[in-house]
Amino acid sequence: MFWFRKKEYPTFWKSYCDCFKEKQNDAIENVRFVIFDTETTGLNPKKDRILSIGTIAVSDHKIKVADNLECYLTQDIFSAESVQFHGLLKEGNFNKISEEEAIIAFLAHIKNAVLVAHHAAFDVAMINQALKRLHLPKLKNKVLDTGHLFIKTKLDPSKKHVSLDFLSTQFNIPQHDRHTASGDAFITAFAFLKLLAILKKKNTPLSLKYLLKSNERIGLL
């Protein structure tokens, strides 16, 4: 006879999962969004590693500056070629923590928030691969992509893929600290609010269900 034992997960993962027991409100004003970005050693989620994570929260159509997370990770894999792009040196002047510590902090910060990122599938995949290395399941959060939201606005039907630089130019958002995780999260947060304002004019009242529509594939990487 085979006995199947339920897998035991660490306390931090259980605490994260407990956040999802309460049903989320569909009204945009009552939803906590966490805009996030990762800087990485490359573009292959299975081989590359996270260098830094930056987040900032949005709720009730306002950026909550105090509700943020910024962390830099120690690097097991170092790519000299990628430094010229993201500028994070292996032994830079940052207080660095392990991947496990960063994931614990990230989960504690995001809780059951709706995650928002530009080209979100990549950032979600990087986090999920880090979770996999810790023998944990994938993220449970709902996810929005600002690139998808721009397409929903129909401001430019010819655009099927847009960059964060394009959005920042389109909405006159200063590119301060561009290509840092926290800087890009902040730019994305401004773009997100601009997109919400445009979509609200097209779809009143604006709901979370409407924003999530057609985004089913995010996070499956």
Jot down its keywords:
Nucleotidyltransferase, domain 5, 6 strands, 221 residues, globular
CATH architecture: 2-Layer Sandwich
**Helix residue percentage:** 25-40%
Largest sheet: 6 strands, mixed
Shape summary: globular
CATH class: Alpha Beta
Number of strands: 6
CATH superfamily: Ribonuclease H-like superfamily/Ribonuclease H
Topology:
Layout: H1 11-18, E1 33-40, E2 50-59, E3 62-73, H2 80-86, E4 96-97, H3 99-110, E5 114-117, H4 120-133, E6 143-145, H5 146-153, H6 164-170, H7 181-202, H8 208-212
Parallel strand pairs: 1-5, 3-4, 5-6
Antiparallel strand pairs: 1-2, 2-3
Helix pairs in contact: 5-7
Question: Would you write up a description of this structure?
Answer:
The chain has 221 residues and is of the alpha/beta class. It has a single domain (26-212), classed as Ribonuclease H-like superfamily/Ribonuclease H (Nucleotidyltransferase, domain 5, 2-Layer Sandwich). 38% of the residues lie in helices and 18% in strands. The protein contains eight helices and six strands. α5 (146-153) packs parallel to α7.
